Amino acid sequence: MPEEVSGDPLALLARWAEAGAHRTMTFATADADGVPHARTVLVTGIGADGVRFHTSTPTTKTRDIAANPHASAVFHWREQERQAVLQGRAVELDAAASRAGYLAQPRRLQVLAWAIRSLLPHLRAPDYAVPPGVMEEAFAAAAADPASHEPPDTWTTIRLEPDRIDFWQGGTETSPSTKTRFVRDGQGWRSFPVLP
Ligand SMILES: Cc1cc2nc3c(=O)[nH]c(=O)nc-3n(C[C@H](O)[C@H](O)[C@H](O)COP(=O)(O)O)c2cc1C
């Protein structure tokens, strides 16, 4: 039987993410013309105020957010037959929060952030094509650079602040799939079942 879905939705999301044993989500943005862009990101925090991840700027996602803060995200846990879909606003956190996130990153992701930083000014929109070998060289140079133990100026942290979260669970032979919608209501949330 599907689990009872109630209580604080962000606490529930954190529990499902823990049970799902992976913390990636598909994060979708749209540019000023409404053209959508989606990608996978690694979630590093789920709290009362939203869901956060780290990234480089400027990238497609940070450009989109600057033009249009509305964003959506999907978590899918295949083993559990569960999904959570978030809708809300994406905001960039301040430098102190971003730095703390950087220091907690695995070394290879710190080095990657610096490699991206060193290449960004040399790549051209709209494709940002990278010549062969250049990324590997930039990665090796960043790894050897002591400055890479602190975040580059291109490092940023995004928080998706949801005002709607849908929790979906697969059904069985004898019970239907369920979907429970949580909608922000003042300081709290209201929830109700919707068609799955
Ligand atoms: C499993 C996985 C985790 C990823 N985590 C991140 C992440 O936390 N931050 C990030 O910027 N990109 C991450 N990426 C790369 C993004 O999917 C994407 O390629 C990159 O952020 C550029 O996206 P954009 O050009 O649409 O802004 C991850 C990719 C995968 C497959």
What can you see in these coordinates?
Keywords: Flavoprotein, FMN, Oxidoreductase. Its cofactor is FMN. It comes from Pseudonocardia zijingensis. This is Pyridoxamine 5'-phosphate oxidase. The structure is a single chain. This protein is of the alpha+beta class and 196 residues long. It has one domain: Pnp Oxidase, Chain A (Roll). It has five helices and eight strands; from the N terminus they run H-E-E-E-H-E-E-H-H-H-E-E-E. A six-stranded antiparallel beta barrel has the order 1-2-3-6-5-4, surrounded by four helices. Helix 4 crosses helix 5. The longest helix has 13 residues. The chain binds flavin mononucleotide.
Helical percent range? Answer: 25-40%
Do you know the CATH topology?
A: Pnp Oxidase, Chain A
CATH class category? Mainly Beta
Listed once per kind, the bound small molecules are:
flavin mononucleotide
The SS-based structural class is alpha+beta
Gross CATH architecture: Roll
Which sheet architecture does the biggest sheet show? 6 strands, antiparallel, barrel
Overall number of strands? 8
**Strand order of the biggest β-sheet:** 1-2-3-6-5-4
Strand content: 35-45%
**Rg measurement, Å:** 19 Å
Spell the H/E element sequence.
HEEEHEEHHHEEE
The CATH homologous superfamily? Electron Transport, Fmn-binding Protein, Chain A
Shape annotation: elongated
Quote the average pLDDT.
95
Distance between the termini: 15 Å
How many H/I helices? 5
- Number of domain units: 1
* Uncertain stretches: none
Domain Pyridoxamine 5'-phosphate oxidase N-terminal: 21-124
Protein name: Pyridoxamine 5'-phosphate oxidase
Organism: Pseudonocardia zijingensis
Keywords: Flavoprotein, FMN, Oxidoreductase
